[in-house]
Design brief:
alpha+beta; Endonuclease, Chain A; 3-stranded antiparallel sheet; about 55% helix
Length: about 300
Amino acid sequence: MTDEPGPAERALYLEAVRAGGRLRPEHLAPADRPTFAALVARGLLTATAAGWTTANPRALGDRIGTELRTRATRLLQHAEQLPHALAPLTLAYDAVRRPDGPRGDAVHIDGNVDIRQRISELISECQEEVLAAQPGPRPIDGLRMALAQDLSLLRRGCSMRTVYQPDTLADHTVRRQIALRTRQGARVRLLAEPYDRLLVFDRKTAVIPAADDRSRATFLTDPAVVAHLVAHFERDWARATPADRHLDPPHPTTVRIGRLLARGLTQRAVATRLGLSERTVAAHLSRLRDRHGADTLFHLGWRLRGEHHD
C-alpha cells in the first residue's frame, strides 16, 4: 500500500463526505469493495453502529508524516555509518596499485560510464582541492547526478574552484545547480575566452579529454605535467571574473550605490546622496569589487559603466 490514497480511494472518500460522512458497505458496487477495504485499512473510515463514518484525514497525515520522518532518520543514520562499515574494503582497495598506474603514467579510459566512475572515485578520495575548467554548456542531468558528491566534498572541508564560460549561466536550471554548490563554499568564475577542459584533484591527478566527443579521457599523474596544467588553470582563474552576481542578486542598496558610482559620483557623494555613512557605502563597494573582480574603485566604476551601457 502506498503512503497516500490513490484516485479511487479519494473519490470514494469524497463521495462518503458528500453523503454526510457516512457509508454503508452493502450499498457499494462489488468493484468498490477493495477501495472500501483500503480506506478502512488506512483509518479513513471508522466503524459505527450504523455503518462506517469518515475519519479526519489529518490523523492519517500526522501518522504517515511521523513514519516518514522515522524512516528518513534511519536512512540518515545508515548513511553516516556506511563509510565506517566499508572501511575494511576501502583499506584493501587502497593497499593495491591504483588504476592510474605507477606515479607519472598517463592512463587512458574509454567510455563515458567508466570515465564518470573514475572521476567519482577521485572526488571521493579528494582531501584538499578540486580545480575545474569547464568550457561550453553543462548538461543539467550531469550536474544533478554529481550534486550529492560535490556537496559531500565541500562539507568535509575540501575547496572547489570552477571556471565556466558566461553562456553556461544563461540556463536558469544550471544556475540553480551551481548556486547550490556556491552556498556550501564552492567558488565560481567566468571567462569569456576559449580554454581547454580540465579537472585537477589535490594537484596530484589531472584529467583532460582525449577525444572531441569526450568519450575518452586521459588521467595524468606526472608531477611536472600536473603542475604545468595547474599553472594554466591559475592563469585563467586570475583573468576570470567572479560569478556571484549571476548566482545571487545583490542587495537593492548595493545596486543603487553601484549605479551612482557608474555615473561618476565619489564614495562621499554617494553617501551624501543616499543618506548613508561613508563606512556603510565602503562596505557595499567592497562587496561590489568582489562580485566584479575589481581591484580599485576606478576599475569597479569602469566595469559598472560598461555593464549599464550593454
